[in-house]
Amino acid sequence: MNIGVIGGGSIGLLLAAYLRKSQFNVNVYTRSKRQAAHLNEDGITLYKNNQTEVFTVHAKVMDELCDLSDDIVFVTVKQFHIKAICEQMECKSSIPRTMVFMQNGMGHLSLIKKLPIETLFIGIVEHGAMRLSDTEVRHTGAGTIKIGAVQGTGVWSHLWKSLNSEEFPVVVLNDWLAIMERKLVVNSCINPLTTIFRVPNGRLVSNLYFLNLMRSVYEETVKSLNLAGQEGLWAEVLLVCEKTGKNRSSMLRDIESGNQTEIEAILGYTLRKGKEQGFEMPITKFLFESIKGLEQEEREKIE
Ligand SMILES: NC(=O)C1=CN([C@@H]2O[C@H](COP(=O)(O)OP(=O)(O)OC[C@H]3O[C@@H](n4cnc5c(N)ncnc54)[C@H](OP(=O)(O)O)[C@@H]3O)[C@@H](O)[C@H]2O)C=CC1
Ligand SMILES: CC(C)(CO)C(=O)C(=O)O
Fold it and tell me: Is residue 132 part of a domain?
């Protein structure tokens, strides 16, 4: 079976490595020629705790492909890249029948549902991963990948079963929208606060002042999504903080490396939901403006 992974970032390299570990043939589609060349030459080096493993992969430049003929393709770009990916797909002579989109945040669903593919999955990533170079990735926090079928179902249970392992758990859940919303709550609570205070995820639990702030963000978020009173949701946020305790959130790393963040897809979305229902979300608004402000600071430093 041929499996494609679009995006050679932190999650793309992590996923490609574990797919290879499960003996699948993996093609990684990168944005740059340089990264594709490095991956073909050196493979992917995966660091986890004190272990180092190297996996060979085939890599190609996404823009240079005429067709994408893998059996299944995982899309691991950032949420704000999805529009460009959908446009690139329109130019290919053939596209896969099954795709899995693994983005944080909401808002891209309407775009991906328009793609002419039979089976569409979303994947919720609860792992922490950090790309160290074009070919090296560190598995910084072990979590779970949750898969949900948005349209079609296909016959993929063998893939999820083969990929699933103790160190890389994969579960299939029926209620994918609920899973996405729960992940949105997790990211709304963790990502902006860790970015403003420049702390790893675990500090939001071990520092009581940060914990109080996170609880306030949580209250506003669950109200905007009509999830107030959902059993186990606050415990889930705390568990992710603990499990990825040493991890710097993807938003913090984006700000530190001068990249755009996914704030629009995370707090931008919950703010819109709150507005639709006519209530104020002062803390969320403060966090949203703070992250937009930090993005601008970083941009102006570079210019
Ligand atoms: N990293 C983490 O720990 C976690 C991440 N997530 C989520 O997973 C998703 C991916 O995150 P992450 O891997 O960290 O992001 P990265 O920024 O590390 O990776 C995104 C990759 O997509 C590539 N890319 C962008 N556009 C294209 C394109 N048109 N064709 C091919 N490649 C493209 C980028 O290329 P280039 O390198 O050339 O810019 C980059 O390598 C996000 O939604 C994130 O929120 C969720 C949980 C944890
Ligand atoms: C799970 C978590 C919070 C891990 O850091 C994440 O999704 C992110 O960083 O974007």
Answer: yes
Query: Relative to the CA of 250, which ligand 2 atom is closest?
Result: 9
| Phi, then psi, of 89 in degrees rounded to 5 | -65, -35
Q: What digits encode the pLDDT tens for the residues 133-175?
A: 999 999 988 888 999 999 887 678 888 988 899 889 999 988 8
Which helix (H) or strand (E) element contains residue 199? none
The verdict on 170 and 183 lying in the same domain is: no
Distances (CA, A) of 98 to 121, 141, 183, 261, 287: 8, 28, 23, 28, 37
Closest CA to 160 of 145, 181, 182: 145
Last residue of a domain, one of 148, 174, 200: 174
Which residues make Cβ contacts (< 8 Å) with residue 26, sequence separation at least 6?
3, 4, 5, 16, 19, 20, 55, 57, 58
Residues in the chain: 303
Ligand 2 contact via 10 beta carbon (within 6 Å): no
Report the nearest atom of ligand 1 relative to the CA of 35: 38
Within this chain, do residues 20 and 155 fall inside the same structural domain, yes or no?
Answer: yes
Rounded to an integer, what distance in angstroms lies between the CA atom of residue 222 and that of residue 227? 5
Domain hosting residue 193, numbered range: 179-298
| pLDDT given at position 198 | 97
Calpha distance 180→122 (Å, rounded): 8
Asked if the ipTM is above 0.90, the reply is yes
Measured by CA distance, the residue closest to atom 3 of ligand 1 is: 128
Query: Are both 168 and 37 inside the same structural domain?
Result: yes
Domain of residue 229, CATH code = 1.10.1040.10
In this structure, the strands spanning 136-141 and 145-151 are: unpaired
Work out the pLDDT band at 132, boundaries 50, 70, 90: very high
